[in-house]
Amino acid sequence: MPTDAHRSDGELLAAVVAGDGAAFAVFYRRHLPVVVGFLLRETGDREATADLAAEVFAAVFLVARRFRARGAGSARPWVLGIARNKLLESRRRGRVEDRARRQLAFEPEVLDDDDLARVDELAGAADQPVLELVEQLPGGQRQAIRARVLEEREYGQVARELNCSELVARQRVSRGLARLRGQLRERDQ
Questions:
Q1: Among candidate residues 106, 126, 146, the one where a domain is terminated
Q2: DSSP character string of 79-118
Q3: Which of 25, 27, 106, 158 could be stapled to 12 by a disulfide with Cβ–Cβ 3.0 to 4.6 Å?
Q4: pTM above 0.90, yes or no
Q5: pLDDT per residue over 165-177, tens digit each?
């Protein structure tokens, strides 16, 4: 059996579906430069690029079972298709989310270089299950993060599922993300 670095994208994604975190780390490192390059060219914004790249690879992780390898071919077009969709979705929702953020008087989340480096470090460390941190969030925040971030549902749908207003759903997601960031920083210290 070839080492992870020599496995095809199809083999790596099949291993991811089987629960192999190390295979996902290899896949992530293999495709991250192309995804980041594409997103940075399109957005011109490092923070937006970091956020979108995280969304892209979260989506890859969640839909890995849908990838259909053609021989030993690369998954690059598939991953870039996901990146393109995330970018378009972000542009559509950005105007709405920014308006809601201002109505709620939330400050925009700002990522510094340490945060960006931590994203890379976490993605490459198969022994640090970030999803465990999500499970430690308070119930409403955990459910909102799962629905909005992990399952990529629209805020209106999240609000209906949680039986709350859309503004409350946004607040729970924002507070949950802030709490996750704090937990990650605590782990670093």
A1: 126
A2: HHHHHHHHHHHHHHHHHHHHHHHHHTTPPPP---HHHHHH
A3: 27
A4: no
A5: 888 888 888 888 8
